[in-house]
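One example copied in:
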Amino acid sequence: MTNFWSRVEQGLDDECWPWRGHRAGRRGMLKTPAGHKITAHAAAWMLKHRTRVPDGCRVEQDCGNRFCCNPSHLAAVQLKGKAPTAVTGERNGNSKLTDEQVTELRAHYKREGVTQAQLAKIYGITQGQVSRIVRGCNR
C-alpha cells in the first residue's frame, strides 16, 4: 500500500478526500500485498490508526460520501445489533459522551487499571458501551 495516498485526492481536513483508484460498485477497492480485497476507506483508517479494524466492526464514512478516504471522516462502528449509522461521535445527536470524554475514558482504562464497570458508572453509560469505546468500535 505504498502508493495508497497517491490515489486519494487530498484536501483540507474538513473536506472529503475522494478515492481515485479502482472502484467496485459504490465503493473504492484495492488489494493488499497479501492479495485480499479491501475498501479504500478501511485502508485509510488502518493506515491512520496503524492497526487492523477491530473484530466485529467495519469502517464507515461519517460524511456520507462512499468514496471519502479522509481519516477524520472515518470511524470503526460495531456490526452487531442495529445497523450502524454513518454519523458518529458528537455529531450524532444520540451521543452521550463528547470526543474529549472518550479520550479521557480510554486513558483511564489504559493507565489506571480502572474496570469497565467502574468507568461505566463514572461516565453514566453501560459497560458494553465502555467495551466498544476501549476496543475502538465506537469513535
Notes: The two ends are 24 Å apart (CA to CA).
